[in-house]
Design a protein that fits this description.
Blueprint (H helix, E strand, L loop, with lengths): L2 H31 L9 E8 L10 E5 L8 E4 L5 E5 L7 E6 L4 E3 L4 E3 H6 L2 E2 L19 E8 L2 H8 L2
Parallel strand pairs: 1-9, 8-9
Antiparallel strand pairs: 1-4, 2-3, 2-5, 5-7, 6-9
Length: 163
């Protein structure tokens, strides 16, 4: 292909590229004007706590899923403070889902959450595990999702494998 035909293709595609770029910018501006989180803050931290004690769960793999947009979920391991961090590129999805490895952790919370609520005020998921102890009380930060669950013990894993 010679330079002249490359330049013709470039000039033919330029208006479409500009239209797409302007449209994307306008949508992001509209989201900021409507009070939705803008491009500057799209980080979500998931804090994983023991359902009975309220203590942070270290070393748990957390998967964040936004089914319509992501082909594969984002995964991160919790720190010593029980926090797994995620950064969402582009406009955030309306809802996100969480999942855990069933051989590692059993969730005691819902699995789907409203993204804007997490980003603006933070969310504490319900703790549905049965326990005689009082349920731990937690206050979330903006951009934080707090969930509860129980680690799967070796004995529970062995029992799952038995026919």
């Amino acid at each position: 292909m010679d330079n002249e035909s490359v330049m013709k293709q470039f000039y033919l595609l330029l208006p479409f590229a500009l239209t797409i770029g302007i449209n994307t910018h306008v949508k992001q501006s509209e989201a900021v004007q409507q009070g939705k989180p803008g491009t500057e803050d799209r980080s979500i931290s998931v804090k994983v706590l023991d359902a009975e004690t309220g203590q942070p769960e270290k070393g748990i793999w957390v998967s964040l899923d936004d089914k319509p947009r992501l082909k594969q979920p984002l995964s991160a391991k919790t720190s010593s403070h029980g926090i797994a961090g995620f950064h969402i590129l582009g406009l955030p999805p309306e809802r996100i889902g969480l999942s855990f490895s069933p051989i590692e952790f059993g969730s005691c919370s819902e699995v789907e959450f409203v993204t804007d609520q997490i980003l603006m005020t933070g969310v504490v998921a319900g703790n549905t595990c049965k326990s005689n102890k009082p349920k731990p009380s937690v206050t979330p930060e903006a951009g934080q999702l707090v969930v509860f669950g129980k680690r799967v013990t070796l004995w529970q894993r062995v029992l799952r494998e038995l026919p």
